[in-house]
Structure to design on (213 residues):
């Protein structure tokens, strides 16, 4: 499944605030209109019921744009809404067990910050890697910054797509190593923008123009 997916602009949702559902969904829709290729629902604080409700709404939205819908960590919710896949970090359920739970046909993404983690993730059944944090980020306070050269080293050791993540914006995207990342994952660079659609278009254009040099 992953061979047919364009990971160039991968959007991770921002934290949900009660009472702002319509605004939350509106910004994601605008981002999708701007060319987001993959949508990940990441929510650590809302109740399981609220996460389920939001996931259902986002799944329907992503389907209307023909964009794969991934859920971070919560395998149960991913299965409940029939999401297209699950993304797990190094402190979540082991990738090999998640693969067993979701089966062979759904996407499995794994966060990696080292060559060793990346190689193990591919061996355990990952379809793609989220590699970072490449820049300082405010969305994940415990994120470890990696050296840019590490992306190149990971690229040499794995065959699955690499999505660079962590603090990426319209300015620093130019500093990513050319051709080593298949895509960029962002949150605030799009969802905190006054014009999420325009921000998505700009980021995607800048990344693709650099990647294809």
């Amino acid at each position: 499944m992953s061979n047919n997916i364009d990971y160039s602009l991968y959007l991770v949702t921002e934290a949900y605030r009660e009472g702002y559902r319509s605004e939350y969904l509106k910004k994601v829709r605008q981002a999708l209109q701007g060319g987001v290729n993959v949508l990940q629902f990441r929510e650590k604080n809302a109740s399981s019921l609220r996460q389920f409700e939001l996931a259902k709404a986002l799944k329907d939205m992503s389907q209307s744009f023909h964009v794969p819908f991934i859920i971070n960590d919560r395998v149960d919710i991913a299965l409940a809404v029939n999401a297209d896949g699950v993304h797990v970090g190094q402190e979540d359920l082991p990738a090999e067990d998640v693969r067993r739970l979701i089966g062979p046909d759904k996407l499995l993404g794994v966060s990696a910050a080292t060559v060793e983690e990346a190689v193990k993730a591919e061996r355990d059944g990952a379809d793609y890697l989220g590699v970072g944090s490449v820049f300082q980020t405010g969305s994940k306070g415990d994120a470890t910054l990696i050296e840019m050269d590490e992306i190149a080293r990971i690229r040499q050791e794995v065959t699955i797509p690499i999505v660079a993540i962590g603090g990426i914006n319209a300015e620093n995207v130019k500093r990513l190593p050319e051709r080593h990342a298949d895509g960029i994952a962002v949150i605030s660079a799009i969802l905190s923008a006054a014009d999420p659609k325009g921000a998505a278009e700009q980021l995607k254009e800048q990344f693709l123009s650099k990647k294809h040099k």
Summary: The helical segments are 21-33, 48-64, 75-80, 95-102, 115-123, 148-157, 188-191, 196-211. The beta strands are 9-12, 38-41, 69-72, 85-88, 107-112, 128-132, 162-165, 183-186. The chain has eight helices and eight strands.
